[in-house]
Fold these 2 entries.
Entry 1:
Amino acid sequence: MRIRNLKKLPKKDLIVFDLDGTLVETKSIMDKQMSRLVKQLLFRKQVAVIGGGKYTLFQSLFLRQLKAPKKLFKNLFLFPTTSTSFYRYKNGWKKIYALELSKKEREKIKKAFKDVFAEAGYVAPKKTYGTVIEDRRTQITFSALGQEVVKVLGKKGVDLKKQWLIENKPMKMKLTRLLGKRLPSMEVRAAGFTSIDVTRRGIDKAYGMKQIKKHLKVPISRMLFVGDAIFPGGNDYAVVRTGVDYFSVSGPEETKKIIRKLIQKIKKEASVVVVSQDA
């Protein structure tokens, strides 16, 4: 259920965040303010992060920017490439599972992208930065401007991605629909500003929430999801099917406001418990 007022939010044991567009600007490193807020939240709650990016991207954008004591990492759980893999901290970050596509499946997906580009009359940007169709082994991801556009251009790269979406959203959704028809055994999702992700059928963020429930032993009713793409066609929308309570945010700045309010709420709840125990 969509949550609009934190005061009415039932008590939660686990906060689940989307990464790109929610905790960080697209393909940008997490800023210091967000790092401090996530650290404060980890003192009080378990936190899981799900995103379409591969694990190395989670490392560079999120983990390396998170200035928190290692003892807090026991409360942090990572689900890269749309939860097709899971990492948790046990004397270092350990991979718990990875649902890799076969070589034949990956080649079929790459060919489908090229065929759909021709069918839709897609015209690629004159200049791209890095790999456009990236093989993440558990997921194949198309990024219209290339995987490295933000790494190379910084904020200008973020602006280029936003502008590309404004100008090309109908084409992006058309490509997504056509890919879905060509790959009926796969899950095809429009993601971020310029990306389309392909995984095996049934692998989406609803699957990720179920994996969290399974591995962390936390019921869906005790989770809260925060994401920027919780709308039909958005890559966070699948979580709605699980019945999880969720906040829809417009970007990292709104996420910060949510985390601050959550921390305030948790502190208030804890003080009430202390007072009642002392009474």
Note: The chain has two domains: 6-99+203-278, 103-200.
Entry 2:
Amino acid sequence: MKYDPIKRSLGSVFNTTPFLRIFFYRLLDLLLLRSWHIRRELRDLKKEGFKPEKVADAGSGFGQYVHYLSRSYPDAKITGLDIKQEQVDDCNRFFTKLGKQDLVTFQYADLTQMDIKEEYDLVLSVDVMEHIEDDRGVMRNIYKALKPGGYLFISTPSDQGGSDVHHEHDDSFIDEHVRDGYGVEEIKEKLSGAGFNDVVVKYSYGKPGKISWKLSMKYPILLANVSKLFLLVLPFYYLLVYPFCFLLNMADTRGTHPTGTGLIVKCTK
């Protein structure tokens, strides 16, 4: 399954103007259930009076979460860290067009080699750990980069069918992953071993989320891999199915799940 080429194709279309790119960010916020969960966690933290001065998105990619963070914390300095230099350059150009270059910057960073000490109050890592073999090293590096009392939020597939893998010999739906998912106790042990405290792990993509993911992500990507012509009818497809996905995403975000194909992790230094 080729996921990145679809993302790149859509990204190139929506990257033609700042308006379209922001529109694309908003679409991703609506479609991607992991975004629903991360934004809910950040809203809950904000309600507690948390006001970070410096924030990092570790594995910032196309800049979706950096844009959300810049709106949520307009006075904070926000850094996107990514290993793809072309993504870093593209995001710096885009946020400069928005006039946010004084507070928002993107930097090349290999998270396995990162050496930053007590810089950030908050770090996001959204669907990144499953791509990195040396995840323990990355967790230690993020721990060092956080200020005392700082927060780390992680979204990652679980071992309960994450990446759409249900059996030992299944291929991952996202073929760039180096692992198919984490167990709850596994990720707790790794984060605690890196020094983190108060590690809270919750399942995401429970029963409602799994249905929504198939309707809003899996099936469209499967069809787009068969023929790019499907992209032309994609808006009509979403007009039909997205109202159901919206309700399913809301149920998944607000509910507590005994199991699920994703994990949402919160921990502190």
Note: The longest strand covers residues 146-157.
